[in-house]
Amino acid sequence: MISLTSPVKTKAHRWPAGAKLGALCLSTVILFYVQSVAGHIAIFAGVLTLYALPGRQFFISGIRALKLLWPFIAIVGIWHIWTGEIALGATVILRMMSAVGLANLVTMTTYLSDMISVIRRIARPLTRFGLRPAVLELAIALVIRMTPVLVEKGSQLSQAWRARSRRPAGWRIILPFTVLALDDADQVAEAIRARGGFDALEES
Questions:
Q1: Cβ count within 10 A of residue 37
Q2: Per-residue pLDDT tens for 18-43?
Q3: What is the DSSP secondary-structure string of 8-62?
Q4: I want to staple 108 with a disulfide (CB 3.0 to 4.6 A). Which of 6, 63, 195, 196 is the partner?
Q5: Distance between CA 101 and CA 95 in Å, rounded?
């Protein structure tokens, strides 16, 4: 498993994780209040500027993460072209790219341990309702860390298919990808059980 925190150090790395997550929530709310295409173009240009400030390596790494959105962009774009609501489609696409871009920016400049600490403080009052913070923390950590691993494995499956066939992979890699994901989940579950399960996590 790998961390999504960028090795390129920025000033934002030193900012409190809670403040960054709070600013992300506020920014996302503001995005839904902006309805004009011009406004969203300006916002997305601002997001790209934030990526560019730390340098070329940080910018390229951040934009590479946003490339994962292209299937959703294609679906939304085709749908709104078909319905004739091109301006609305452009607004939705730009809003989505800005929101994900800002979230990815927070992830790239925040250590996972700091994020988990914030989640622990937020979830502590919910323990009276039966919520186990250790379970929530581990679930979030696994999602953040395993997502790029699964994306990389999906890319490797596509490359392996293209090496053996001229036809596009498409739905044909869904089954092997599912098997790989389930195998990874089983290995993680075995590792957790070998370390005492969730009870051991809560004690630590």
A1: 16
A2: 899 899 999 999 999 998 999 999 99
A3: S--GGGGS-HHHHHHHHHHHHHHHHH---HHHHHHHHHHHHHHHHTT-HHHHHHH
A4: 6
A5: 10
State the DSSP code for 172.
G
Whole-number Å distance between alpha carbons of 20 and 194 = 35
Write down the residue that tokens 């293209």 correspond to. Answer: 162
Long-range contacts of 15-24 (CB under 8 A, 24+ apart): 15/109, 16/114, 17/110, 17/111, 17/114, 17/115, 17/117, 17/118, 18/118, 18/121, 20/106, 20/109, 20/110, 21/106, 21/110, 21/115, 21/118, 24/102, 24/103, 24/106
Q: pTM of the entire structure?
A: 0.69
How far is the C-alpha of 3 from the C-alpha of 110, rounded, in Å?
Answer: 10
